[in-house]
Amino acid sequence: MRRILCLLLVLCFGMFCSCHKAIDSDMSGAYRITKKIQYNNVSVDVVIDKPMNNDVDVLVVYHGTVFFDNKILEAAFTALDNFKRILDRKNMMIVSVAYPEENLLMGDNLPHAEAGFLWVKHRASQDLGITVKKIFLGGHSQGGYLVTRLNTMHQTQGVIANGPGPFNLVYRCQLEENGQAPSTVTCSMLRDTYGSTTANASAYFQRSLLNFTQGYLSDILFVQGMNDSPIQLASWSQFKEQVLRCSSCRGRQFLEVPNFGHTALFDSPRAQAEFNQFINSR
Fold first, then answer.
1. Which among 21, 83, 84, 176 counts the fewest CB atoms within 10 Å?
2. Which class is domain 32-168+210-280?
3. Distances in Å between the alpha carbon of 272 and those of 158, 263, 268?
């Protein structure tokens, strides 16, 4: 009896190994997986959507604000699906970075966003058995904030930022302090750390996107729906003007989309056409 049981265990183990090898061999085709990666001692989850081909251009995407970390993986999937839906290339790999937000001040998740990009640039080919060619960055809302800041740090083939922000945390958080806007976690944490905008305006401004309008290393396309929130639009023109004045930046394009809101890139056919033209021309 013991001999029979041992034989059955051997057979079962052999079947498991065969199945495991079959799964590994399928990794050369199209798949979608979630993977925890690490770069520069920073760990972050990424969702990888790989096409059939193994020589790939890659679009690394970043979701919008969800505040709580139990929502970020869902947000990463949503961002991936939204960018994939409007992308007219079916041979491009998309990697969605589930950067954390909870208990972090605005901008303190930049190392996680950077780790996702640097893993794609330096490790994805080896880890996934593929060849990574061109790399683009795409971000929505806070994701747009992150890819804009990454564009001052690393060169890529191009960057797309939809409804990026916050532009001006001094203005935004001052409205909350004066009771003119609902309280948000973003401003509450800054106030707990730095005091009010009146007491320490420079600390708020240093984390604002208006502080990152120079030194862009790659071409960048900004998409802004002109039916977005008043807080977003209040600083849009100032941001645009400062970016256009940059003498050391690579190419900058601005697309203002009438009659569309914060998700203009994903809703407007015109914005989607500009998005695809931007990628396909590089």
1. 21
2. alpha beta
3. 16, 11, 6
pTM: 0.90
Residue ranges of the chain that CATH labels 3.40.50.1820: 32-168+210-280
The neighbouring-strand residues paired with 62 are: 97, 139
Interacting residues of 46 by C-beta distance below 8 A, sequence separation 6+: 34, 35, 36, 37, 76, 95, 96, 97, 98, 116, 119
**Mean pLDDT in residue range 268-272:** 98
Residue 55, burial from CB neighbour count under 10 angstroms (0-12, 13-18, 19+): exposed
Q: Which two tokens stand for residue 103?
A: 């208990």
DSSP class of residue 200?
-
Beta-strand ranges (E) seen in the chain are 31-39, 42-50, 55-62, 93-98, 131-140, 158-162, 220-225, 252-257
What value, to the nearest 5°, has the Cα angle with vertex 204 and ends 198 and 209?
Answer: 140
Query: What's residue 25's pLDDT?
Result: 35
**And the tokens for 80?**
């991936």
CA distance 137 to 157: 8
Query: Which among 124, 104, 160, 122 has a CA at the least distance from the CA of 46?
Result: 124
Residues 30-79 have pLDDT tens digits of 999 999 999 999 999 999 999 999 999 999 999 999 999 999 999 999 99
Q: 265 is written with which tokens?
A: 């890139």
